[in-house]
């Protein structure tokens, strides 16, 4: 494995050695290295392999500044059901049956060598259940977090997450219980309320209950799905200025890419910045470009070297290697260096056609098809091309079931749909192959990787050919761009629009980049979002109340303000896609929408994993 320095990654220091003195608040925060960068809790997305992938792009020093949260776990199920614990938290290879720290070798979650600092998040509404669940994980993490932000229907019916907002007494008891009785500190993540005063009051209550760190998601409960919109950093600043100065506060929301982190810290005065969606589309979001300017992992825009990003094929490889080495505990396949157009041309007969399986041979030093196929034997012990007998099939099905319960294997497809999003609408053969890749079928995922590598090779070659053809103007462009700080002024866009953000973040398809969704008013105009009956009524009421105003003008005037107001009045009642469904919907968003391609959309949607009971995001 030429390109991943796992030894370096393994050198992440243990955040909290042996048995601990319980520190709280800022002293606790400092004891875990005062992290400034935080991987958000994400159901089915912030599992070990993804956290480790994100950490692996940071050097040793920066690693101390990265804190990660587990996905939200359901406290009642976790304390009640050993199977549920095993399916979601694997600190050792044995079942998590005791609340004492196990003496057996650490495995994945909370492993002091590779997965710290770590905060485990739960949703809960009963203090005793919350404590019981937290006691199981306390020996393997640095703190336990209470989810007060989940806005989904499932949280509403289960009375947890953001739906505890109106039940302050319960929140206070939940946090206080852990503050008093748990070995590690308790923290809380919540959404802002409608006004500064209400939010401040709410935050004070959470701190009074005993939260050592608060994470403030700068969006209200109704802001989800197409209504997500922009997070309010001003509100977070207000909290910073009006809460006790030693409060440890993380800001969450609006981090599209690495260049947003510093501005967020500055604007909010927060101690750290948490990223969720930005981290999913670019797990290198917290990393700096490599110091080695010839690194194959990183693409620099030949027209403007100040613009760049980590290559998707490199990130995908690294992710696969982590799955092999840490989750499956087997050597990853040998891989050739990532392709560069300056590499020598492969001999005739070894080159490949984009779209074929086994295109891992499209490398500078081709790995033969046979070698590759052997290497691709994953945990199922069969290759994509092997004809399986009935007996083999049964055996594989059983192992597939094991995979489905492994949080790291289960999330691979969802992660890859998000990571590869920039290329999936143009490379539909890859999208279809990914859609067919089942949890635990490592050979299938390796095959998708080969297809991605071949597509990236083709993209790089095309870029290179284009550059050769227009060499003199490229130099001129680069000079002009550096004199305008890297911004092209070809056409004017509204700086506040999602189009402006999209333009700022746009990279070639082979580079990690954020997905910028339309703002609520834009989504409405595009027809991607429709107001629910209640929301329409609210809008109509508002129009009627303003009857002195030109109604026609008002009807055409679908500004974000009006829409947001209407949504607020309706209390965010309209249901949205959630958790895995949300990512499925995002996949669907990338797909072509014209009639002839709708069959694809249905196909992919059917192929995606079904939503589980607990995918609350
Ligand atoms: C796929 C997904 C799963 C999520 N799961 C959780 C979760 O388990 N717990 C939680 O507190 N928030 C969850 N969230 C919300 C994020 O932690 C974060 O608050 C939100 O996405 C805003 O941050 P962002 O603008 O960086 O995406 C989830 C978000 C996504 C996209």
From TrEMBL:
It comes from the Eukaryota. Residues 366-401, 476-500 are annotated as: Disordered. Keywords: Flavoprotein, FMN, mRNA processing, NAD, NADP, Oxidoreductase, tRNA processing. Its cofactor is FMN. Residues 387-396 have a biased composition (Basic residues). GO terms for biological process: mRNA processing. GO terms for molecular function: flavin adenine dinucleotide binding; tRNA dihydrouridine synthase activity. Its EC number is 1.3.1.88. CDD domains: DUS_like_FMN. It is an enzyme of class 1 (oxidoreductase). Residues 39-288 form the DUS-like FMN-binding domain. It catalyses: 5,6-dihydrouridine(17) in tRNA + NADP(+) = uridine(17) in tRNA + NADPH + H(+); 5,6-dihydrouridine(17) in tRNA + NAD(+) = uridine(17) in tRNA + NADH + H(+); a 5,6-dihydrouridine in mRNA + NADP(+) = a uridine in mRNA + NADPH + H(+); 5,6-dihydrouridine(16) in tRNA + NAD(+) = uridine(16) in tRNA + NADH + H(+). Belongs to the Dus family. Dus1 subfamily. Catalyzes the synthesis of dihydrouridine, a modified base found in the D-loop of most tRNAs. Specifically modifies U47 in cytoplasmic tRNAs. Catalyzes the synthesis of dihydrouridine in some mRNAs, thereby affecting their translation. This is tRNA-dihydrouridine(16/17) synthase [NAD(P)(+)]. It comes from Knufia fluminis.
